[in-house]
Write a structure and sequence with these properties.
The chain is an alpha+beta fold and about 160 residues long. About 30% of the residues lie in helices and about 45% in strands. It has one domain: 2-Layer Sandwich (Alpha-D-Glucose-1,6-Bisphosphate, Chain A, domain 4). The chain has three helices and seven strands. It is globular, with a radius of gyration of 16 Å.
């Protein structure tokens, strides 16, 4: 299953990527984010691994992130592995007119390892895309608010 989500952020590329790459700010726009722990490699570079934990109600969801490509501020690609599935996420950032940034996230689910995720992907593929788009939209709101408050301008 493949899909692309995108959002235009009313902020310059360098500021957007700085906030995107700030691990301490993940909880501000990724619902359920609990923690990220660097495991190996040089952080943010190809081959680096981290453990990411999200909480959904009483359930903890643990992912292993491996950086596959890093050419910031323009691209970063990661492999995300969970006991039930794995996917790659290629994030592209482009400066567009009037100090705006386009963020495109290209997702490809490569493996569904259990019965239930397979059924969910087959019956409700839009659910995966809606969740990704929600995080992009959340990031847009967060980034614009953060950048405007830092610069002292009101919208």
């Amino acid at each position: 299953m493949k899909f692309t989500c995108r959002v235009t952020i009313n902020a310059p590329l360098d500021k957007v990527v700085e906030l995107f790459h700030n691990k301490e700010k993940l909880k501000e726009w990724q619902e359920g984010f609990e923690s990220i722990t660097h495991l190996s490699g040089s952080e943010g570079t190809v081959g680096a691994k981290s453990k990411i934990i999200y909480r959904r109600g009483k359930h903890a969801i643990e992912l292993t992130e491996t950086i596959l490509a890093s050419n910031l501020p323009y691209e970063i690609t990661g492999l995300y592995e969970h006991i039930h599935m794995s996917n790659t996420m290629r994030n592209n950032f482009s400066a567009i007119n009037n100090g705006q940034t386009l963020w495109e996230s290209h997702i490809e689910y490569a493996k569904f390892k259990k019965f239930m995720p397979n059924i969910m992907a087959w019956l409700m593929p839009g659910m995966f895309k809606r969740q990704t788009q929600k995080w992009l939209d959340n990031f847009k709101v967060f980034a614009e608010k953060e950048i405007n408050s830092a610069s002292g301008t009101a919208k």
